[in-house]
Specification:
Number of domains: 1
Helix content: 25-40%
Pfam families: ChlI
Organism: Eikenella corrodens ATCC 23834
Protein name: Magnesium chelatase, subunit ChlI
CATH architecture: 2-Layer Sandwich
Distance between the termini: 36 Å
């Protein structure tokens, strides 16, 4: 697959509107562009994602990579989109064995450390509440998942690293699942 779509959430006050993270890989000079984030955040996110993918033992594709965060008019900030961007790139390059239909059942958020470990994000309660309304599971960093598991009927998956997320999507076994009742 050379195009992958991963779902995430932005924060807008108490709301958490849906964001589609589209990752497209094409032949051409190797370049990595992110569209839909402020310039400073694009550079920072691009550097974190590239380092995390490589440090986690995956191949960073030597392709023209374009990542789009839609809708364009929605304000987006912070590193919360690092994890969905990385998963999108890995899915588009065939390094994650998950179908587009299965991937669409999840929403992800998390800032990546250069090592590939996940850092907590703010707004987990709002994001998970809205994902529950959409009937999707939410994958979050461990610390954020603990807060978000308070949401009734939420299916929250807590991960410590990019590797744990990929292993879960490939084998459905190495990630902690917290379901609030």
């Amino acid at each position: 697959m050379s195009l992958a779509v991963v779902y995430s959430r932005a924060l807008s006050g108490m709301a958490a509107p849906l964001v589609e993270v589209e990752a497209h890989l094409a032949n051409g000079l190797p370049v990595f562009n992110i569209v839909g984030l402020p310039d400073t955040e694009v550079k920072e996110s691009r550097d974190r994602v590239r380092a995390a993918i490589i440090q986690s033992g995956f191949d960073f594709p030597a392709k023209k990579i374009t990542v789009n965060l839609a809708p364009a008019d929605l304000p987006k900030e912070s590193g919360r989109f690092d994890l969905p961007i990385a998963v999108g790139i890995l899915a588009a390059s065939g390094q994650i064995a998950i179908s587009p239909e299965e991937l669409a059942k999840y929403e992800l958020a998390g800032e990546l450390a250069l090592s590939g470990l996940l850092r907590p994000v703010r707004g987990a309660l709002a994001m998970v509440w809205q994902s529950t309304q959409a009937r999707r599971r939410f994958i979050l960093p461990q610390e954020s998942a603990e807060q978000a598991a308070l949401i009734e009927r939420a299916e929250v998956l807590a991960a410590e690293s990019l590797v744990a997320v990929v292993e879960y999507t490939n084998y459905c076994q190495t990630i902690q699942i917290t379901v609030a009742l």
